[in-house]
From TrEMBL:
<keyword id="KW-0804">Transcription</keyword>
<protein>
    <recommendedName>
        <fullName>RNA polymerase sigma factor SigZ</fullName>
    </recommendedName>
</protein>
<feature type="domain" description="RNA polymerase sigma-70 region 2">
    <location>
        <begin position="8"/>
        <end position="70"/>
    </location>
</feature>
<dbReference type="InterPro" id="IPR014304">
    <property type="entry name" value="RNA_pol_sigma-Z"/>
</dbReference>
<dbReference type="GO" id="GO:0003677">
    <property type="term" value="F:DNA binding"/>
</dbReference>
<dbReference type="InterPro" id="IPR039425">
    <property type="entry name" value="RNA_pol_sigma-70-like"/>
</dbReference>
<dbReference type="Pfam" id="PF04542">
    <property type="entry name" value="Sigma70_r2"/>
</dbReference>
<dbReference type="InterPro" id="IPR014284">
    <property type="entry name" value="RNA_pol_sigma-70_dom"/>
</dbReference>
<dbReference type="InterPro" id="IPR013249">
    <property type="entry name" value="RNA_pol_sigma70_r4_t2"/>
</dbReference>
<dbReference type="GO" id="GO:0006352">
    <property type="term" value="P:DNA-templated transcription initiation"/>
</dbReference>
<dbReference type="Pfam" id="PF08281">
    <property type="entry name" value="Sigma70_r4_2"/>
</dbReference>
<dbReference type="InterPro" id="IPR013325">
    <property type="entry name" value="RNA_pol_sigma_r2"/>
</dbReference>
<dbReference type="InterPro" id="IPR013324">
    <property type="entry name" value="RNA_pol_sigma_r3/r4-like"/>
</dbReference>
<dbReference type="GO" id="GO:0016987">
    <property type="term" value="F:sigma factor activity"/>
</dbReference>
<keyword id="KW-0731">Sigma factor</keyword>
<dbReference type="InterPro" id="IPR036388">
    <property type="entry name" value="WH-like_DNA-bd_sf"/>
</dbReference>
<feature type="domain" description="RNA polymerase sigma factor 70 region 4 type 2">
    <location>
        <begin position="97"/>
        <end position="147"/>
    </location>
</feature>
């Protein structure tokens, strides 16, 4: 592995530095990639795929970095919202429906979805908090999203107006008992 690493290390460092615009941060990321590659070398099935494998690790590590360090731009205080910028009644009504719909999911799906989507918790933290493996948490969150979407579609008719905004109407049917 060391020979392969030395062959691609400089090119990988240049790629990461170009993507991030920070040479010091690129060095840290490349070091993390080396550690992860060393620890997971058993997962590599062919030495010919080594280069693409370490680039994928680097790409994932850069994504993790951006998730960990989300940057926000502070808006001026005198920037006032006009009536067009305010949330419409439809959005408020829809937002009020989201919590009961999530609560109506089986607990094993509701809790991971609530933590990941409403609280913005990274999936690794969801896994840790619920005592799941990372892949288990990802699966639960994905299944919860599907079940939630099915419930939402069953309860509401969605359309988009000419401005691209969601216009929805609650379905009133004999089976809409779980709807808000």
């Amino acid at each position: 592995m060391l020979e392969q690493w030395l062959l691609h290390q400089d090119q990988l460092r240049r790629y990461v530095a170009k993507q991030l615009g920070d040479a010091d941060l690129a060095d840290d990321i490349v070091q993390d990639v080396y550690i992860k590659a060393s620890n997971n070398l058993h997962q590599l099935t062919s030495s010919t795929k080594f280069k693409s494998w370490i680039y994928r690790i680097a790409q994932n590590r850069m994504i993790d970095h951006y998730r960990e360090h989300q940057y926000f731009i502070e808006l001026p205080e005198d920037l006032a919202a006009n009536d067009d910028d305010l949330i419409s009644d439809e959005y408020e009504q829809l937002a009020l429906c989201l919590y009961p719909l999530i609560d109506s999911l089986p607990k094993k799906y509701a809790e991971p979805l609530r933590l990941a989507e409403l609280k913005g918790m990274p999936q690794q933290e969801v896994a840790n908090q619920l005592g799941l493996s990372l892949s288990g948490a990802k699966s639960r969150i994905q299944r919860a999203r599907i079940k939630f979407r099915e419930q939402l579609v069953a309860c509401c008719d969605f359309e988009f107006n000419q401005n691209g905004q969601i216009v929805y109407e609650r379905k009133i049917t004999p089976t809409s008992e779980g709807c808000c």
